[in-house]
ABC transporter ATP-binding protein (Nonomuraea ferruginea), 607 residues
Amino acid sequence: MGFLMDGLEAEDYDRTYSDRELLRRILSYFRPKLGAMVLVAAMIVLVSLGQAAVPLLVSWGVDAVQAGTIGDVAWPLTGALLLTGVLGWVFNFFRQWYSARVTGDVVLHLREDAFDAVLQRDLSFYDETPSGRIVSRVTSDTDDFATVSTLTMDLISQVLMVGFVTVLLFLRSVELALLTLLVVPVVVGLALLFRRLARATTRKAQRSLSRVNANLQETMGGIAVAKSFRQERQVYDEFLPINRQSYQVTLRQGFVFSAIFPVLFLVAGLATVALVQFGGTAVLGDRLTAGDWYLFLQGVALFWFPLTSIAAFWSQFQQGLSASERVFALIDAPPRVVQTGAQPVGRLAGRIEFQGVTFGYDPASPVLRDFDLRIEAGETVALVGHTGAGKSTLSKLITRFYEFQEGRLLIDGRDIRELDLGEYRRQIGAVPQAPFLFSGTVADNIRYPRPDATDDEVRAAAEAVGGGDWIDALPHGLDTDVGEHGRALSMGQRQLVALARLLVQDPAIVVLDEATASVDPLTEAQIQEGLDVVLAERTSIVIAHRLSTIEHVDRIIVLDHGRIVEEGDHPTLLARGGRYCQVYNTYFRHQSPNYRAGSGFVPIGSS
Ligand SMILES: Nc1ncnc2c1ncn2[C@@H]1O[C@H](COP(=O)(O)OP(=O)(O)OP(=O)(O)O)[C@@H](O)[C@H]1O
């Protein structure tokens, strides 16, 4: 199926399925619908028979006119035509209805499986895969797959009809049947040529549209910056050529698509002319009846449509198959984080021990090498260091979002790989720098980790954080709507909600990436108080950005290029004049209330 992937950017987890495997997977989705599919198949045969019967009945009528017996057969023939039409409509209705249901059900399950697979993926998957691409696999790729199933049913119906008509024609006149069949290679050849052109232009159109999308996405993402620098004109000027290009390419695509049908009509017209000529002569020479002649003329039309659609929609068919391949690759993507056991976790004390851990996002260039660290249960540890030192990486390993390559990570003395991952994660409270709030009320967000938490529990958690004064500042208290992504709340309020949420979760280990955005002194004090409550009695790993945090933690760990270069508490490390002092001078010094520009440096010794 390699050719199916032409021009599509492959993801890491993409794979090529053999035709047999792909078919097996597709059929596995259709198998539960076997009953409905048998019904659809029966309807397809009946509809095709009905379609082939109409010209046959009319040809008998024409023969009857020629023979002068039309008066005897007119009514039965009219009745038969009417009946065929009505039955054809009924069969077609059931065919369409049941095939729509089969396709709908299959897409429903495929989408459910794809979404479930997305939820099961490790965080590393989301770091590496742009979210837009994941969304398109779950939505448009499954839709493309549905198109295949609809097309397949249509094609089967049309192929059957062509089969029936061919048999009829050969029964009437072998010579003229062969003449009619001459049109087949021409139509197929043209349709294949069209397919190549259509594929190339469609691909270009898709690419140009994705350029437009990317440009729009970036504009929307940075709209605040663009507006504050009054760059609207420049943004517009950048958009213009990209949009124009998309217009041109789409126009070309439209031209190719609208050119093919007139060309195919022309071929069918020429074939009809030939049949009129040869058939007419044959009728005059009494070698053929007028009815047969009519049947052949109809045959060209009946032939023409299915053949063109089979050839012309072949590329759509391929597109759908490759879409199904992409969806299956998403479903089958192997997990990066591999658990060797699923031991019950119980309530954790929270002792964490890295033993000779080596880890790299790309295993070829490790971020941590033979890394050792022991954090005692209930200890609060601050990780500090320059950007890229490995602070977030350590926290991602503790939350088990990434798989390490060597060494061991022990939690309460037990190998992290042997624990039940779901249970383990429930005891880890992770707070990112910019806490994410889901749309809903503040109370909904606080209740998020434990939906069965009562209103009183939610209120108690909110009040425990920063004395609860912050709730009064919200327009509707805990019932305040947080807006999309929590935009209706200030940064500080979002952090307070995240801390209250953590209290409801009641984790044994907290991994907190402190916000760098500064908040007003009152909120700062509330957050600090909130932190004191949340971190008490729990093992806490804080990626520290605030002076008040590093002043109060049990131990500060200074990281540099994935190694611990110094550790101890704040006064000890300050007095030592080592690497910590460099970090302090760079990131924390200016946060002191006594700070004056250019002052407050701690001396760095030669150690
Ligand atoms: N998802 C990722 N894929 C590949 N490399 C990564 C990824 N995340 C981090 N890295 C690399 O790993 C190294 C450590 O990064 P890490 O994010 O742990 O640093 P940090 O100390 O938390 O920095 P910061 O304070 O800027 O967040 C850096 O060299 C970084 O480029």
Remarks:
- The longest helix spans residues 232-284.
- The chain is about 65% helix and 10% strand.
- Residues 1-9 have pLDDT under 50 and may be disordered.
